[in-house]
């Protein structure tokens, strides 16, 4: 192959790779925000037309989302937004309950005063969104993921983000059903976590976070109808 042909092939692969990342990001955002509910059919031809791309980056995007657990691919049939059973969701929350405090332990010593202040601001913003489910979910994810920014890990951070994304549609339905008391408790836990991090009490921050996740898991278990839709 000539140098010019090799360069053109490399450029095409780069374009396909960039398009694949862009398509995967778009679908992932649609799933996490509830635009693509569990069970939604993912049609390659529609995505190719929407993004002005060939089937190659679309297939790459779907393959990535399948790896993340967000999309289920059935051979010779197509792809759908993954569904979780209640048991599967409970298992993921049990994993989060143990893994996220560990990730916070890795992160906490490296959080700067400015990052801690940003967490405090986020906690305050979350506490005033009221019954706006979309605003709560967006700020809540920003808060927790920001609390892990100091972690220097090669595997754990990515794993936690995948676990977060996989349960997002069900958490959305659960948060939408919250009574004011449930919101108040969640807000208090965010503020308590910031206070513990500021005090450099990592064990207390871990304890608060584990309880925060455990409470969600237990309340989801009392809402089986969310998984039957």
Automatic annotation (TrEMBL):
> PROSITE patterns, from UniProt?
HTH_GNTR
Q: Which domain of life is it from?
A: Bacteria
InterPro entries on file: GntR_C, TF_FadR/GntR_C, Tscrpt_reg_HTH_GntR, WH-like_DNA-bd_sf, WH_DNA-bd_sf
Q: Where is the HTH gntR-type domain?
A: 17-84
Q: What is this protein called?
A: GntR family transcriptional regulator
Q: Per UniProt, which keywords does this protein have?
A: DNA-binding, Transcription, Transcription regulation
């Amino acid at each position: 192959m000539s140098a010019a042909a090799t360069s053109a092939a490399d450029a095409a692969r780069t374009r396909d790779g960039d398009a694949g990342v862009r398509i995967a990001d778009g679908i992932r955002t649609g799933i996490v925000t509830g635009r693509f509910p569990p069970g939604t059919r993912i049609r390659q031809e529609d995505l190719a037309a929407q993004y002005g791309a060939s089937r190659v980056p679309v297939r790459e995007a779907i393959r990535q989302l399948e790896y993340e657990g967000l999309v289920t691919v059935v051979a010779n049939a197509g792809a759908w937004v993954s569904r979780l059973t209640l048991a599967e969701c409970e298992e993921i929350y049990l994993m989060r309950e143990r893994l996220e405090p560990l990730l916070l332990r890795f992160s906490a010593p490296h959080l700067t005063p400015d990052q801690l202040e940003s967490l405090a601001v986020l906690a305050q913003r979350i506490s005033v969104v009221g019954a706006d489910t979309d605003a709560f979910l967006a700020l809540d994810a920003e808060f927790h993921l920001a609390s892990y920014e100091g972690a220097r890990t090669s595997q754990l951070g990515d794993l936690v983000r995948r676990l977060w994304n996989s349960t997002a549609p069900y958490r959305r339905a659960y948060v939408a059903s919250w009574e004011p008391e449930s919101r108040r408790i969640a807000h208090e836990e965010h503020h308590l976590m910031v206070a513990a991090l500021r005090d450099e009490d990592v064990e207390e921050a871990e304890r608060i976070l584990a309880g925060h996740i455990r409470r969600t898991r237990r309340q989801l278990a009392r809402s089986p109808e969310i998984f039957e839709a």
